[in-house]
Amino acid sequence: MSTETPLDLFWFVPTSGDGRYLGSRQGARPQDFGYLREVAMAADRLGYGGVLLPTGNQCEDPWITGAAIAPWTQRLKFLLALRPGVQTPAQWARQAAAFDRISNGRLLMNVVTGANPKELAGDGIFLDHAQRYAQTEEFLTIFRGLFTEAGVDFSGEYLSSRGGKQHFPPVQRPHPPLWFGGSSAPAIEVAARHVDTYLTWGEPPAQVAAKLEAVRARAAITGRQLRFGLRVHLIVRETDAEAWAAAERLIAHLDDATIAAVQQRRAEDSDSVGQRLQTELHGGRRDRLEVSPNLWAGVGLVRAGVGTALVGSPETVAARLREYQALGVSTIIASGYPHLEEAYRVAELLFPRLGLGGVAAPQVAARDFVTTGGSYGTLAA
Question: Contact, 309 vs 271, CB < 8 A?
Fold first, then answer.
């Protein structure tokens, strides 16, 4: 992929809470709706392409939250996470079509199979790793079939549909784009067969290159081509030295006992290949956190999911992002602590280096939506 093409940069809405320090209540911010809306509105105003809202039992529901925030934004796309096993493909299809129409075609769907059997059991999902991906395969087969002219008849081991059809079409055809991540062989197979964009967490470029090539090869067998996205944190300051100092401040209140407890619990609870790869980058040690030039694994000492951040000046971080772009990555889903301030900092410092205009969206007031029409619908006065 040409590195002359601007990257599409998304931001993250911290629906499990936010703060200035990792693993500490000092400077912590709860995930109240007003704050989450502020983060999304800032991303919209600053010119980010979209926002990711995650799923999990410690997160506000992404679909309810996203639906409440969307009317306060104008151009922002919403990448909403969903778990295949918690409701039927038909119900997800109806929600997706409704959200897409209400937002005027701004929905993206992030299909999350899940990595923590204990958490999944709380949601009523009692499947092992291989079974969950088999269920995801069936889910996506039915989901995509619901949006076809003929509808879908499918009988699987985990999910079935007889005469299924989505009768209210979305704005985006045939359905809102499907995003998906996973590092195991079953995950790569599902991605190659069904999704539009494959996501990887921030790993050293050589590891990312190998993963993306594996996905390309599997997709090519069925004549498909996928887009690729990278999920990573960003710590950008005016100089490299300032950025590294900010990275150290982020974990300044972490002690070794907390790190060890988190790492042990994660090893016991998660069966995710991607999570294991993130942990192997640092091994729970503070003295081996720069795992690739400017790729820092300090976030992963206590945070589940993506645990790496690109650290440096705008010039440095832009150069590292271009390295991933050269591998085929076209979308970066970024985050930073705290997310409101860092959304501005990244836009102001990094956007110009990436050729992103950062065109501001107009300020949006609640009264603007108390109308009798328009693309955003209405809100009660």
Answer: no
Identify whether 1 is part of a domain: no
pLDDT by 10s per residue, the chain, length 381: 656 688 999 999 999 999 999 988 999 999 999 999 999 999 999 999 999 999 999 999 999 999 999 999 999 999 999 999 899 999 999 999 999 999 999 999 999 998 888 889 999 999 999 999 999 999 999 999 999 999 999 999 999 999 999 999 999 999 999 999 999 999 999 999 999 999 999 999 999 999 999 999 999 998 999 999 999 999 999 999 999 999 999 999 998 888 888 888 888 888 888 888 888 888 878 888 999 999 999 999 998 889 999 999 999 999 999 999 999 999 999 999 999 999 999 999 999 999 997 654 444 443 343 332 333 232 222
Q: How many domains does the chain have?
A: 1
Q: Using alpha carbons, list the distances in angstroms from residue 113 to 56, 74, 128, 266.
A: 11, 30, 11, 17
| 379 domain-assigned | no
C-alpha 199, offset from chain centre: 8
Largest CA distance in the chain: 61
> For residue 84, what is the domain's CATH number?
3.20.20.30
259 with 284: CB under 8 angstroms? Answer: yes
